[in-house]
Design a protein that fits this description.
The chain is mainly alpha-helical and about 450 residues long. The chain has three domains: about 100 residues, MgtE N-terminal fold, CATH 1.25.60; about 120 residues, Roll (CBS-domain); about 180 residues, SLC41 divalent cation transporters, integral membrane domain (Tetracycline Repressor, domain 2). Helices cover about 60% and strands about 5% of the residues. The protein is built from 19 helices and six strands. β2 and β3 form a beta hairpin. The termini are far apart. Keywords: CBS domain, Cell membrane, Magnesium, Membrane, Metal-binding, Transmembrane, Transmembrane helix, Transport. Homodimer. It is found in: Cell membrane; Membrane.
Length: about 450
Amino acid sequence: MSQTSTDVNLRDLRHKHPNDIAETITELNAKERILAFLLLPGDMKGEVFTYFNRTVQEEVLKELGSRETAAMLENMAPDDRTEIFENFPDLLIKESINFLSAEEKSIALNLLGYPEKSIARLMTPYYIQAKKGWTIKQALSNIKRYGKKAETLNHIYIVDKENKLVDDIRTGRLLMADEDQTIESLMDYEFISLTTTMNRDEAIEQFNKYDRAVMPVVSESGVLVGIVTFDDIFDEIERRDTEDIQKFGGLEALELSYTETPLMTLVRKRASVLLILFLGEMLTASAMGFFEEEIAQAVVLALFIPLIISSGGNSGSQAATLIVRAMAIKELGIKDWWYVMRKEVLSGLLLGLILGSVGFLRILVWQQAGFYDYGEHAFLIGLTVGFSLIGIVLWGTLSGSMIPFLLQKLRLDPATSSAPFVATLVDVTGLIIYFTIAASILRGTLL
């Protein structure tokens, strides 16, 4: 691509959202990507850079000098810059911070000083504040003066002489009030805030609970230090849910996206869990070996082993999925285990009756229609399969619903009660249930 054509393309892009620009630049080859990025206006580089995936970010940083990197970081929103720093090599962080202006350097170091998973890492110090003694006219003047740099103008935050937060007021209320009114006349002293030490999961709960688009962040002593907007919280929700889904799918959570994760890292993350599951499934072979004599006497029982264990595993996975998600959105807690157990016992029993009836009828219909000859004891075999399905589906449902509570009690992530782990547990125990019922019903006939 010639420089002229690049300029033309960029002129077309400059009126688009930074995310759209980042997507277009990412689709170029490596050389054209760097050229296109360098030709962006200085104030646009930082915005576009935050939307690149990590691979492209690293590629761009290798081509930029320390001063160019610092100039780009200078124009970034503080919360976006902090997120970038979390993935930077330490040496590059040190060099880049030293090139920032004194004000931005102080902000960057302050944000990086908070614990890694704290909500303070996501906040921005750019917001509008006012004193309760001000008039509406003074407050609006302050908005015009500092509003351009503020992250959002949805609210104005009222602080006392010690800069402690005492209230927040929607900007719309200021616009509707008389200019000579005081801020205090609009105050109700009711506000919701986050603390700097609060972890991100707790902050997400607060945003969901109070349905807010932006929330102030205060220190332990109540001093207003920043705000967090919903776009940052939404990114955090996406990361958390992605991690939980990966864990529930039976693999270690990936630090990077699937496309950015190296092949060997992906294999390592998956192999460890697969190995554990494989060792668990070996117990299935051991269980079958224990009932080898019964299988030899009634080979027909082996036909239904896949049907039996898959039904139990599926019911367990369903229950685990429902409970883990309910826990994630705080619909359920440890105290609700008894309520869940009662509900899942009834659910498992009804589901087992449905599947057991279908399994029983299937054997009788196949026998009568001549599709397969189960022998003279087809009715008893049908009862064995039917009752086994009831027991195994009930056990699978109960196991899948209770394991997340057990993990939470042990202060472990309930999401690690993945569907494959539940299925493996039910596979092994399901065989025991199946052959125990078979031994009871078929003893004296086939066994």
